[in-house]
Amino acid sequence: IGDGSVSYGMDDGDDIYMRSWTGTIIGPHNTVHEGRIYQLKLFCDKDYPEKPPSVRFHTRVNMTCVNPETGVVEPKKFGMLTNWQREFTMEDILTQLRKEMASPHNRKLVQPPEGTYF
């Protein structure tokens, strides 16, 4: 999508409720994330799009908005989920998480070994 740095798709093409999605983020240049590929799960419950989906990293990552034990993106620490608007898209979430990776407080954090998962 866009420049190819994020992508997403449904987990099950037969899911008529379109609830379960997989997202991918390519780590931004000039950060500890560069060259890494991160997989995430996004789940939309019955209140979506009025309420945000739940977002969880499958690939291990060290970021200030991600629970280090579960990989869950903590809504209170990730402004887009805190200030959710129904117009926001899956692409918006992934793009904003990628920007968060490049932010000063995340760009140099020591990362778990590549190929490890929550």
UniProtKB/TrEMBL annotation:
<dbReference type="InterPro" id="IPR000608">
    <property type="entry name" value="UBC"/>
</dbReference>
<keyword id="KW-0833">Ubl conjugation pathway</keyword>
<dbReference type="Pfam" id="PF00179">
    <property type="entry name" value="UQ_con"/>
</dbReference>
<keyword id="KW-0808">Transferase</keyword>
<dbReference type="GO" id="GO:0061631">
    <property type="term" value="F:ubiquitin conjugating enzyme activity"/>
</dbReference>
<dbReference type="InterPro" id="IPR016135">
    <property type="entry name" value="UBQ-conjugating_enzyme/RWD"/>
</dbReference>
<feature type="domain" description="UBC core">
    <location>
        <begin position="1"/>
        <end position="118"/>
    </location>
</feature>
<protein>
    <submittedName>
        <fullName>E2 ubiquitin-conjugating enzyme</fullName>
        <ecNumber>2.3.2.23</ecNumber>
    </submittedName>
</protein>
<keyword id="KW-0012">Acyltransferase</keyword>
